[in-house]
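Q&A log
Question type: sequence-to-structure
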Amino acid sequence: MLLYAVAIVALQDLAALEVEASAVAGGTVAIDRRIHLAQCNAPPAMTPVRGGLGIACSLPIWRIVVPLQMVAPIIHRGDPVSVTASGAHFDVTIDGIAEADAAPGTSIRVRDRSGGHLSAVVRPDGSLTAAGYNLP
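Response status: OK
Response body:
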């Protein structure tokens, strides 16, 4: 008599992962429903990659790259913009000029009044956040 052992593995909720990834990317992310990923025991890391978003889990180890659906730019080269950085006890806003067209979720280079440059991320509402700072 031959017995087979079957391991029951909890699967990652792809719909919830899409919602989280779309919020991070600032655009629509669609994950192929044919993919079966083991449930991640920690929040998956999400990193922008050319034309998409890399999603990685450290335990168990898995990594996928999902394409972003193209979103029209909402900021255009030469537009006057304000970049905001916020922390627990401060808010700083810097006015500048956009140096390229940018869609939500993408990074853009901004020239400030003194001629310096900074990097900012375009939020879905069209506002800009200084790279490295998270606004609620």
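Response note: The first strand starts at residue 45 and ends at 49.
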